[in-house]
Design goal:
Elements: E1 3-4, E2 15-22, E3 27-35, E4 46-52, H1 62-65, E5 68-75, E6 81-87, E7 92-97, E8 104-109, E9 114-118, E10 123-130, E11 139-144, E12 151-156, E13 162-168, E14 171-179, E15 188-192, E16 197-203, E17 208-216, E18 226-229, E19 236-238, E20 244-250, E21 257-261, E22 268-271, E23 280-285, E24 289-296, E25 307-312, E26 319-324, E27 330-336, E28 343-347, E29 354-357, E30 365-372, E31 377-385, E32 388-389, E33 394-401, H2 414-421, E34 423-427, E35 433-439, E36 442-448, E37 451-458, E38 465-469
Parallel strand pairs: 3-9, 10-16, 17-23, 24-30
Antiparallel strand pairs: 1-37, 2-31, 2-38, 3-6, 4-5, 4-7, 7-8, 10-13, 11-12, 11-14, 14-15, 17-20, 18-19, 18-21, 21-22, 24-27, 25-26, 25-28, 28-29, 31-32, 31-35, 33-34, 33-36, 36-37
């Protein structure tokens, strides 16, 4: 591996960086001590590490991105300590749960870290979701942090629309409400205070039931089509075998659009404003192209049950067609607009997260043949400022596997698409240390707040430790 820096970027910030490569699935300890508000040791607190499938990425497949896998759990000792053994370079969500305190949660904790966790007094959010006239509106709710980047609580109201979320961390939060059969309201901003109960009343409109059908271009019903609000489709309904759907609580709101997707078909989006006075709507979906192939590991063995997706930001709605390989490593992704050139995105724990540019469609299909997914590498480093560790700093590694153009050249919209499939983000720990896992051989740009710190070349060679002081 070699490491290249660019001069002239560090007139204000003096940065030191050490980088090492390590084999896949290297294990690192995640240790820490848990104390209360006054520094008292907290014994018996439940410490839980959870891995999200898309941790560190901005994947637009939210079902996959937030798929949870338990990574480890233990209670703190009588001295308030805990220790977990986890794969290096793979961030986890860490939750510390102790009665009488607010639940402590952080989404981007890196194995190899040593944490000092101070619990705080809890806050409570209580209230109701109501229709005009006072009737309760059952709903799914999420309480997000101040930047709406992660949610600190998720759940449902009671049947009468009332809710109570206890033991939340104090501070500003944003609350999203998704009623079962009423219009989704605007997001609510709330300030939670430690030791206090904050009341929140959310008024929602009943909306109306938008009915319709989903058909193909030949006029035949498309069973199982999913219709939802906005690209996240948090509120959604499923069309029946006859293609008929009924969307309750429909109204023109902040989500702006109604999206229809069905397996094997190109998705269709319609602006809600266009349906303001409509009593029904008919979606007509076109069949899309198919991308096929077979995934193998470096030993030539088939990769079964591996996540694979065809992704492109060319057009509206965006193309994100996910799938899984079968027992022989084969995949078939249908419903891709043939006018676009997507990229193939492959992600599996322990192997390199990789992308390949897909050629133009011929006869509505592309067969990539056998695709070998490399063993993953890990880049480790330490971020310093004038010799001192830079803690809690967000770092981004942008880039992908060197053979991404094996099948075709770069698509025109790659500069936008790569934001979602070729950009990894982590935070430094209190010692300024960080690690990026799941890397294939390739060239990467290490960035902080949009500024490039260095270019890192990751190769297939043995691990190499290297230190570069960028202040010199």
């Amino acid at each position: 591996m070699h490491y290249v820096t660019r001069a002239g970027l560090f007139a204000v910030l003096s940065v030191g960086l050490s980088v090492a490569l390590a084999p896949a699935q290297q294990i690192a300890p995640l240790v820490g001590v848990v104390t209360g508000p006054d520094g008292e040791l907290v014994a018996g607190a439940r410490v839980t590490a959870t891995r999200f499938a898309g941790q560190g990425y901005e994947l637009l497949d939210l079902d996959f991105r937030y798929r949870r896998t338990p990574a480890g759990a233990m209670p703190t000792t009588r001295r308030g300590r805990f220790a977990l053994q986890l794969p290096l370079g793979v961030p986890v969500q860490l939750v510390v749960d102790a009665p009488g305190f607010a639940r402590w949660l952080r989404d981007d904790v890196m194995p190899g870290s040593e944490l000092a966790i101070r619990l705080a007094a809890p806050a409570t959010l209580r209230g109701s979701v109501r229709l005009p006239g006072g009737a309760g509106a059952p709903a799914t709710m999420r309480v997000w942090d101040r930047n709406r980047c992660k949610y600190v609580e998720a759940g449902r109201t009671r049947a009468d629309g009332t809710f109570e979320f206890a033991r939340l961390p104090a501070g500003p939060v944003t609350v999203s409400v998704h009623p079962d059969a009423a219009a989704s309201p605007r997001w609510q901003k709330v300030e939670l205070r430690a030791g206090e109960v904050t009341e929140l009343s959310v008024d929602v409109k009943p909306g109306r039931v938008l009915k319709g059908r989903v058909l193909d271009e030949a006029g035949k019903a498309v069973p199982g089509a999913v219709i939802g609000e906005g690209w996240t489709m948090r509120r959604r309904v499923v069309a029946g075998d006859d293609g008929v759907f009924a969307f309750p609580g429909f109204a023109v709101n902040t989500y702006g659009e109604l999206l229809c997707r069905a397996q094997g078909f190109v998705g269709e989006v319609v602006q809600q404003a266009e349906l303001k006075n409509a009593k029904s709507h008919e979606f007509v979906l076109a069949r899309g192209g198919v991308v096929r192939g077979r995934l193998l590991n470096a030993a030539g063995e088939p990769l079964r049950d591996t996540y694979v997706a065809a992704v492109s930001m060319d057009g509206e709605p965006h193309t994100w067609v996910p799938g899984r390989t079968d027992a022989e490593g084969r995949f078939s992704l249908g419903g891709i607009p043939t006018r676009v050139r997507p990229v193939l995105f492959v992600k599996r724990l322990g192997l390199a997260t990789s992308v390949w540019f897909v050629p133009k469609f011929e006869a509505d299909r592309v067969d990539l043949g056998e695709v070998t997914v490399a063993q993953s590498r890990v880049v480790q480093g330490t971020l310093l400022d004038a010799g001192e560790p830079v803690a809690d700093s967000e770092l981004t590694l942008r880039g992908c596997n060197a053979d991404c153009d094996r099948f075709a050249g770069q698509p025109a919209v790659w500069s936008l698409t790569r934001r979602y499939v070729a950009r990894r983000t982590v935070r430094t720990n209190r010692h300024g240390q960080f690690a990026f896992g799941d890397l294939p051989p390739g060239s990467y740009s290490l960035r902080q707040a949009g500024e490039e710190l260095a270019v890192v070349e990751v190769g297939p060679e043995d691990p190499v430790a290297l230190r570069v002081d960028l202040a010199r």
